[in-house]
Amino acid sequence: MDQPSGRSFMQVLCEKYSPENFPYRRGPGMGVHVPATPQGSPMKDRLNLPSVLVLNSCGITCAGDENEIAAFCAHVFELDLSDNKLEDWHEVSKIVSNVPHLEFLNLSSNPLSLSVLERSCAGSFAGVRKLVLNNSKASWETVHTILQELPDLEELFLCLNDYETVSCSPVCCQSLKLLHITDNNLQDWTEIRKLGIMFPSLDTLILANNNLTTIEESEDSLARLFPNLRSINLHKSGLHCWEDIDKLNSFPKLEEVKLLGIPLLQSYTTEERRKLLIARLPSITKLNGSIVADGEREDSERFFIRYYMEYPEEEVPFRYHELVTKYGKLEPLAVVDLRPQSSAKVEVHFQDKVEEMSIRLDQTVAELKKHLKTVVQLSTSNMLLFYLDQEAPFGPEEMKYSSRALHSYGIRDGDKIYVEPRMK
């Protein structure tokens, strides 16, 4: 059989990790390892190979000499081959079968949909625990073959593969804990439920950027489908009903939820979104990446009661009655205007005269002096001002600084301002 044209894995490996391009270094985090096995290429002594190999975007189309791969890569446990030109699973198998301790493999953005993955080839992946097939357009048949041959697979990445449906595997994958299947086109819940059937031990399900419109499942069925689900990401899905949010409570172990960018929440403020979600999801400890503290939960649940207390009975969610049982019926919060006072009515004292005036508090002392010129018949340069807080025990305070704003004195209605001529 003719060797495929293009650059081989070994060719790229030798170029990238030659001493000229990847010098041997010592120190924390910089250690590299050169395998000491006797077999292999004489070039081995001239390569510095780390245990994590990153060979993305290198134009790789084939494996190269398998004996050399085995000699160089016996210690490698992570391999990034993303964005290359690998289109034959046999070539991938030649690489992986000679990396005996491989646990992480990234094959994203390789045109592997052009060939069929046979079980004999997939068997070479047996030790892999984390597999990335993003933008590979891997068919579900390929995924099923992989699942049957990877007994220890824990994390699977299937993003950007244009999936509109999910095809169930003939066997369950009991080992998988994390499934990352974002940026596809999974719109119907009947497709998502198949993931629960295939992966009963799933801990984390990342479904962001799929246009899932609703969760059509009974509470009992959801609990059976995802009995171990601890975290779900529904960012930018199409959920538009609070009933779908309530359905998330059916997952018995759910602790973390991500729900940004869904149609349901567009009409609410940022504060309302977070508090209403926390109140409806009593078991979660983290929302949209932020920890939900006990104090925040209580604040949110009390907010929820007050939010719905004026709604018609038929529009009040069931969660409202649960929280009223917990906290009782709350009084509406008093409306407090926290805006700073913009003006004040003060008494202006000059010699024996007293005049009540309304002054703007956003003006400065210098501007107030200009305003008082016609009242006291003094020039601004010959004018001293003193402010007396009606409740202050220390007497009048001289208003020395021309650029100081009046509101910084805390002036209120009924306070007094004394004007005196400057002594020459």
From TrEMBL:
Domain Ubiquitin-like: 351-420
Keyword Phosphoprotein attributed: yes
Superkingdom per UniProt: Eukaryota
GO cellular component annotations of the record: cytoskeleton
Function (record text): Acts as a regulator of tubulin stability.
Keywords: Coiled coil, Cytoplasm, Cytoskeleton, Leucine-rich repeat, Phosphoprotein, Repeat
CDD domains in the record: Ubl_TBCEL
Localization of this protein: Cytoplasm, Cytoskeleton
Main localisation: cytoplasm
Gene3D superfamilies documented for this protein: Phosphatidylinositol 3-kinase Catalytic Subunit, Chain A, domain 1 (3.10.20.90), Ribonuclease Inhibitor (3.80.10.10)
Xref: InterPro entries: Leu-rich_rpt, LRR_dom_sf, TBCEL_Ubl, Ubiquitin-like_dom, Ubiquitin-like_domsf
Name under which the protein is recorded: Leucine-rich repeat-containing protein 51
